[in-house]
Design goal:
The chain is an alpha+beta fold. It has one domain: Nuclear Transport Factor 2, Chain: A (Roll), CATH 3.10.450.40. Helix content is 30%, strand content 26%. The protein has three helices and five strands, in the order αββααβββ. The strands form two sheets. A three-stranded antiparallel beta sheet has the order 3-4-5, covered by helices on one side. A two-stranded antiparallel ribbon has the order 1-2. A hairpin with a 5-residue loop joins strand 4 and strand 5. Helix 1 packs parallel to helix 2. The model has no long low-confidence stretch (mean pLDDT 86).
Length: 136
């Protein structure tokens, strides 16, 4: 088995998120590293308890929507994202989670997630915007 085939099997494929239709009229699939990036988005956007058959799945970020924008909240964002990705995305090796102020929005944080795809050793980065409604 070639490395390329092995990597595709490990990285896998899944439905695109949000759902899309491909050029042949079927449901579009995300493959490889794009599937991983979409899976990370799904993990972060899903609150524990939302999935009927897997109620523990997701990330606790939504618990912080009304929290103030301060050091304690930032530390909790880092902890929640780290815990969720370590638990639910086995195809990556999480390198760091950093939280930055969004200069374009008073209530937004930019969550920078740096990771390595385990099977290819490719370094990747995602910036996930997280919006707070709390007061400082």
């Amino acid at each position: 088995m070639t490395d390329n085939i092995r990597n595709k099997e490990f990285l896998g494929q899944g439905l695109t998120f949000p759902l899309q239709i491909n050029s042949r009229g079927g449901i579009a699939l995300a493959k490889g590293e794009n599937d991983i990036a979409q899976a990370i988005q799904i993990i972060l956007q899903t609150s524990p308890g939302e999935r009927v058959m897997r109620p523990e799945f997701g990330c606790r970020l939504q618990e912080l929507v009304f929290a103030p924008k301060n050091t304690e909240t930032i530390n909790m964002v880092i902890a929640y994202v780290t815990d969720a990705l370590d638990r639910w995305e086995p195809r990556i090796e999480l390198q760091s989670v950093n939280v930055l102020d969004d200069p374009q929005s008073d209530g937004a944080l930019l969550v920078e997630i740096n990771y390595i795809v385990s099977s290819t050793y490719n370094e990747r980065s995602i910036v996930y915007p997280f919006y707070l409604s709390g007061e400082e």
